[in-house]
Amino acid sequence: MTQPKHGIVLGGGWAGMLAAQVLARHAQTVTVVERDVLPDEPRHRKGSPQGRHVHVLWSSGARIVESLLPGVTERLLKAGAHKINFHQDLVTLTSHGWQHRFPPRQYAIMCTRPFLDWHVRDEILAGGRITVRQRTEILDLVGDRTRISGVRVRDVDSGATQTLDADLVVDASGRGSRLRHWLSALDLPPIEEDIVDAGIAYSTRIYQAPPGATDGFPAINVAADHRLREPGRFGVVYPQEDGTWMVTLSSTRGAGLPTSEDEFLPYARTLRHPLVADLISTVEPLTPVAISRVGANRRLYPERLEQWPQGLVVLGDALAAFNPIYGHGMSAAARSAAALDEQLTAGGDESGAARRMQAAISAVVDDPWIMAASKDVEYVGCRMNAKDPRLTGGATARQRFSDLIADRAVRSSAVCDVVTDVISLTAPQSELASSRFLSLMHQDRVLPELTAPPLTPDELALVDLSPSSLAGVKGLTG
Ligand SMILES: Cc1cc2nc3c(=O)[nH]c(=O)nc-3n(C[C@H](O)[C@H](O)[C@H](O)COP(=O)(O)OP(=O)(O)OC[C@H]3O[C@@H](n4cnc5c(N)ncnc54)[C@H](O)[C@@H]3O)c2cc1C
What we know:
Layout: E1 6-10, H1 14-26, E2 29-33, E3 56-58, H2 59-68, H3 72-78, E4 82-86, E5 90-94, E6 97-98, E7 106-110, H4 113-126, E8 130-133, E9 136-143, E10 148-155, E11 161-165, E12 168-171, H5 179-185, E13 192-197, E14 201-208, H6 213-216, E15 219-222, E16 233-239, E17 244-251, H7 261-268, H8 275-280, E18 290-292, E19 297-301, E20 312-314, E21 320-321, H9 329-346, H10 353-363, H11 366-376, E22 383-385, H12 389-392, H13 395-409, H14 413-423, H15 435-443, H16 457-462
Parallel strand pairs: 1-2, 1-12, 2-8, 5-15, 12-20
Antiparallel strand pairs: 3-7, 4-7, 5-6, 9-10, 10-11, 13-19, 13-22, 14-17, 14-18, 15-16, 16-17, 19-21
Helix pairs in contact: 1-4, 1-9, 2-9, 9-10, 13-14
Bound molecules: flavin-adenine dinucleotide (FAD).
GO molecular function, one term: FAD binding
InterPro entries: FAD-bd, FAD/NAD-bd_sf
Pfam families: FAD_binding_3 (PF01494)
């Protein structure tokens, strides 16, 4: 594509800001349209309600952000974010038992969302090439079925409407994007949509971590076991940038959710292991309970439309949003921004450029989509309105294979390495079907099953727990 003169990004969230940074490399001018005021410090805002809940940025996404903004990882870590090496710095009860803490392979950045967003946004806007139209609401797209030429917006305070012209519009307006509606107003056929909804809900509180336990203590993760064929309950205790623990309890449909302060600890006791409850029972809660019921996997297929208008692409949650338990949304958005960058750099024929860009962006959300959706269909009560044949056919055989892998990964270092590469979106999901991996599944040495969380005596001392209180897991193991 010839380089755009003016690019407009709809939405100034995580995906929108990364897309704006990419556009700033190629377009003469870039405008971000955002309904909120974007805070000039780490602060919650209305348009990012998920920001009150646990977020991890996987290494694949962190590397892309670093390549777009060199030095930003160091900035985050210096300001207090945690780099959690998988699985050395993490104690996890997986569906198949306690995970051995193998040497580091991939990592995740852990900190609050307002902190992450602000540092990244600050770096992006410091470049001085991007204009942000805050308190400005997107109304609809301007153009026709062959080309989008801009966007109509409304000033939230004055109510004044205006048309902004652009030769490339990027929809990054999140799960609530009205793209399908906007395109049907331009007489385009509906974009196909798949939804897989396990009824995920999150309940989150922040606690003061015990002295010394913010740095020297691992992140904790207690997962449900889908093989029990009952609604799933999960819990995590993740260190944050300011010496606190963010504790999120989450559930699939039918498993209830603690919605008040009184219910939080008792609910934590109902997880498959009491570790989360034991950790929070003696520390001070600093916030009330925040709730989110936004967690369905939802994906659009714009690349399937016979005709896709020039001058338009969609990415981030507006294109594909996932069950947040897998922690893939921000990394998928980063991968989409990188795909957009590659396409703009490659250039090529003007006609069909937006279609090519969209195909490249859509391709990189396929792995996180199928990983989350194919797992979620296993939960009882999951609702599905999806045509993806990988979700509707051969589910039993697929699940049996993924159970075999999960069982092996908790006890085999080599298998765990490959699985961690895939889960972190560093390696493609197809790696799990490679002959190299299949031979690892048969050959690698397997360690004994762990019967209690793999915490060292020093770590237990930091949180005042004894090994004897930690044995035993509810339900199936192995
Ligand atoms: C509870 C929860 C936990 C999560 N945990 C993780 C995690 O651990 N790791 C991870 O990678 N991902 C996680 N996610 C997903 C992650 O939050 C999203 O993938 C990510 O924020 C998507 O960014 P986005 O920019 O596409 O959308 P959003 O963050 O929703 O941004 C959209 C922006 O568009 C603006 N906007 C919307 N409509 C308009 C309009 N009409 N006019 C003007 N502006 C508009 C909004 O104000 C907002 O700023 C989680 C999600 C949830 C719900």
